[in-house]
Description:
Largest sheet: 3 strands, mixed
Mean pLDDT: 77
Number of domains: 2
Structural class: alpha+beta
Number of strands: 3
Strand order of the largest sheet: 1-2-3
Amino acid sequence: MELVVNAFGEQKKAVLAALRKRESIPVTDGGKVVAVLHPSPGSDLPRTKAFGMWADREEIGDPTEWVHEQREIRRRR
């Protein structure tokens, strides 16, 4: 797939579908590639298990929920 700048509005669904399939998409303007869209690298990270420096923290469980709770506590201060 290739995304032409002038046709982005017409191709939104196709662009998002290609990105969900982990495809990179060249963006062209006047027939020349001016950028390349890549899928977000963070979308492949595990959401249910902690990893890295958090892996041995048993009290965390779901790291996404834990971070949300910590932010909520700080927001209330």
